[in-house]
Write a structure and sequence with these properties.
Two copies of one chain form a homodimer.
Chain A (H helix, E strand, L loop, with lengths): L7 H24 L14 H6 L3 E5 L1 H9 L8 E5 L19 H9 L3 E6 L2 E7 L7 E2 L7 H13 L10 E2 L7 E6 L10 E4 L4 E4 L9 E7 L5 E5 L2 E4 L7 H6 L3 H14 L8 H13 L10 E5 L14 E4 L1 E6 L4 E5 L3 E4 L4 E7 L5 E6 L2
Parallel strand pairs in A: 1-2
Antiparallel strand pairs in A: 3-19, 4-6, 4-18, 5-17, 7-12, 7-16, 8-9, 10-11, 10-15, 12-13, 13-14, 15-18, 16-17
Chain lengths: 367, 367
């Protein structure tokens, strides 16, 4: 890492801080005679979740997403402690101060000085021809090429591909969002795998272009099907409205200022165009993109829609209860919370919706 | 393809149309006793370009980008014929009607009923530690896993990595844009290659998440360095201002309407908010994103900037003569015209600018 120019000393320090913070949480729990099983990412599974009365994630928002990804019981509380304040905003975690005084959080829980918060999540049904409902974990680390090859060849020869057109309910619930888009740049993308001896990992030596338009058809709330071409489709929850969706849709001061200048000119408006007004309008617009994690509604946004002779989008974003997508993609995927992905190619149809049974139970401590 | 549900008959038909259109162009040229070498993508190289007095691309805009990518002589005309009207907008090609009446175009050229058009292009310098100036062709098709493995291992063992910090001028000129961003989702992304016997191609069986924020520092026109985190940085030419850059930056009616509604409320404006005004403002704003291919200036835009405690962006987009970027990325690349990519990881510094010597010579026929 140091040879690459990375800040190895910095990484080591953050790891030290994280480890110390984890110990603090574990000690606080054991001091209250609470039985604690401390597991790392790769040991965390549904059996561990079943054993636990509650799950605490110690890391950043990404770790919280991982923790939530194995919890399907709406009465199993999942609590996040941000042990990595420099890297993570901690939107999904308890306020920062409990990181160093976790007993305070425990006391509030004992005294009932909190309320339950149910974060709504998205479920996915997949149907159609040639679909593959096998999830791929994008965070899998450091398996050797050989181990992975064997695993995948076994999967394929067990013929996971289904010709049954009954909708499969996929074994995931999106806490932030589902993103649908093309993953590779070229129809015949070739990847050669180079075994890096120092890392014991494989990295493809080809970089894939990030820009390949996704072609699909979309129907919102059982409305008419519309052909679209874009850089992808994002469907989020209230929780996810603060995440990637926010970055896709937010507007910059600079753009609002230009829009208001043009409007003033065209509308012959007597409008004092000061930075205060521009800032207010920008803030209001951006705030309108956010909503409560507990609202059972989804927000869809089309990223960089391509509008030309063939394709159009009547609405670039909006709220909905149900979104159906038919893939016309060559090599696309549905990515859940940036961590799990499913093939989503020509012939596949996804139905995306919220079911309140899938909500994730968390806590909001009184302040 | 048919088993996947793809429209095989449709693909075959488009191929037939394309082949017929290519024959028309070649015949028209040979009828004028012009010597023609017809080459496919994989046979097209700098030797062929040197042999030719002019280069004609027969395909869509993508083929034109490929044709231009091997031309570095500002006096070697490159002309595009759109043989694939259903799939390509043909922005870079001659107007559609010449596809079926190419002799008409030839006559105009003979009679001087045209003007030369020089499309400005972007050049790239790469310097810093551990850089790898080896370009990767993202359109490489159908090499076997074995051939590619061998090729890349040979490259690596020849130690292409340079510790010299002198800037390397990369052997590419961007006709549309340079895009900088992270390519893989996970630090230890693993890719297992599955040899598909029917396709004779390799497709990674892992899909890579499309969302991994890119971390870099940017200096515009030798201004102060600014740390940024975003979904990537796009720097385009006038030609490229109609392409991906346009899709990144254009604003939707829907968004303009909401912004004007908010402005009206905040500014207590007496403004009749009708769809006509909204449409005018939207069109004006979007048109301001476009500029002439012949202008020697670049337009940079930051895609989905992440603004929080650590990162900010003073300007999300703008014109510039020079953009410098220091990578703080783990596994990023610079992608030129969606077709060629270079590693761009922590330690690398890119300088991006237009030099009028790099312009591409094309023609504008009189109408």
């Amino acid at each position: 890492l140091a040879l690459k120019g990375s800040n190895y000393a910095g990484l080591l320090e953050r790891h030290r801080i994280h480890t110390k913070n984890v110990e603090h949480v574990v000690d606080s729990l054991r001091n209250e005679r609470i039985e604690v099983r401390l597991v790392k990412r790769r040991e965390y599974n549904e059996e561990t979740v079943r054993w636990a009365d509650a799950v605490i994630s110690a890391g950043g928002d990404g770790t919280m997403l991982l923790a939530a990804s194995k919890v399907f019981d709406k009465f199993k509380p999942v609590i996040g402690v941000n042990t990595d304040p420099e890297r993570s905003e901690g939107h999904l975690c308890l306020p920062m101060r409990y990181t160093h005084s976790f007993p305070e959080a425990l006391q509030k829980l004992y005294r009932g000085e909190f309320r339950w918060q149910w974060r709504q999540r998205i479920r996915l049904y997949l149907e159609g021809t040639g679909i593959n409902p096998t999830p791929v974990d994008l965070h899998e680390q450091q398996l050797s090429q050989e181990q992975h090859s064997r695993a995948h060849i076994n999967e394929r020869f067990q013929d996971q591909r289904s010709d049954i057109s009954d909708p499969h309910l996929l074994p995931v619930r999106a806490l932030n969002e589902v993103f649908i888009g093309e993953s590779l740049s070229s129809r015949y993308a070739v990847c050669s795998v180079l075994f890096r001896e120092n890392f014991k990992s494989c990295k493809p030596s080809f970089k894939f272009s990030l820009h390949r338009a996704s072609y699909y058809e979309i129907s919102v709330d059982d409305g008419p099907w519309e052909k679209q071409k874009s850089s992808g489709l994002n469907v989020c929850t209230g929780t996810g409205s603060k995440a990637w969706s926010y970055n896709i849709n937010k507007v910059a001061n600079q753009a609002v200022e230009e829009i208001l200048k043009i409007a003033k000119k065209h509308g012959s408006l007597n409008m004092p165009l000061n930075m205060e007004l521009v800032q207010k309008v920008t803030n209001d617009y951006n705030e309108s993109l956010l909503y409560s994690p507990e609202e059972p509604k989804m927000f869809f946004s089309i990223r960089e829609p391509i509008v030309n002779r063939v394709f159009s989008s009547s609405r670039q974003r909006g709220f909905s209860s149900k979104v159906c997508v038919r893939s016309r993609c060559w090599d696309a995927c549905m990515v859940v919370d940036g961590g799990t992905s499913f093939e989503f190619n020509d012939g596949a149809i996804a139905s995306i919706m919220i079911n309140t049974e899938d909500a994730l139970c968390t806590v909001l401590l009184e302040e």
